[in-house]
Design a protein that fits this description.
By secondary structure, the chain is mainly α. It contains 14 helices and nine strands. It folds into two domains: 2-208 and 344-381, Orthogonal Bundle (Cytochrome p450); 254-282, no CATH class. Bound molecules: protoporphyrin IX containing FE.
Amino acid sequence: MLLNLKGGDWKAVRSSVTPAFSSSRLRYLLNLIDECGQQMVQYLRQFDNTEIEMKDVMGRFTLEVIGACAFGIKSDSLCEQNAKFLQVAENYDHMPFLKKLRVLFVLLFVPEFSKQFNISFLDEHNIAALIEMLQEAKSQRRSNTSNNKHGDFLQLILDAAEKELAEKGTQTCLDDDTIDGQSILFLLAGFETSSSLLSCSVLVLAYMEEVQDKLRAHIFEVTRDKEMTYDVLSQLDYLEGFLLETLRRYPPIARIDRVCVKPYVLPGTQVKINVGDVIAVPVTGIQMDAKYFEEPEDIKPDRFMRDGKVIKPSHTFLAFGSGPRNCIGMRFAMFSAKCAMVHLLKNFKFSVCSRTAYPIEYETNSVFLKAKAGLWVKIEKLQPNV
Ligand code: HEM
């Protein structure tokens, strides 16, 4: 997988999968994402005037999107409670606590054993079930000789593999395991992160009514009588500023790492960083530092706006990382989130309820940001065109 490759291998796979995130690809994928947004609205209508846990809802929406874009399947996670994809995808990292501790021990102290003994944080049965679904989707795609091809992520990577085979006569970079790895990666890298962004956003809006009203007015103004297209979503600057501010205040990934490849002495100190040393960059620490973001506890979407346009500081806003190894799915994640927020705010009003816990308190034993008490809000249907 891209996430754990290094050096030349990383470079080769990164450049093969980069076109999957181009703007022309996003334009196509947006139709699929928009369909998932419409399904989410249908699903949520049944909860009118009740209290609802948003991480669960946004998890379902995100899985629907990942299923459609990366696995070439419809999961129906917003309709059927027990859809197979939802069941296995939700539990991809399920593991009893003691086994987790053992895995952690191996990965920390004898990482070279992890490959030899096939040790990982992923649940082998659920991952096997996902791979089986992928095999089925891939063989359907490969037997499709018509010109009417899918335009999703899976098809793009299959086409790249076919091209490689035709040009080189062998599969050096995109063999079958690597293809499966990239689809699973979509789930690993995209599920918790994107559902966390969306659910935290809704919680913030429930708490900050005036920002919710301003955002809804902005969305109606930009999207009135228009289809959900790439260009329309690109014009939603205030929504983008709001999502970036939510990511600053509640980054789904609290730290990023780099491995030193050249000896380096920190300027003005005697601290030497040696080849192989791991440097941890504290994303939350930097994004919550008053030196860079005044009154960091407060949510202020305008921090990311200048003259009505979005501005993003490159090294103090680190929710998507930075540099050549930054998040490859950033634009995909932002467009999906914008699409979901448009559907949500046009159709529903959110407010705090008896179970809302704000500001969010985190679980302390999770790699990703996880809310201790869930993300509860009250949801009410809006009359059409309010
Ligand atoms: C709100 C949503 C998301 C957030 C906050 C997020 C955040 C991040 C962060 C912090 C990194 C590490 C970057 C670094 O070290 O500089 C990363 C890497 C990565 N992300 Fe995301 N991500 C999100 C959604 C996605 C999605 C939807 C995908 C879909 C494929 C994705 C794919 C990846 C991949 C493949 C990497 C590794 C890139 C590499 O090593 O070359 N992410 N992400």
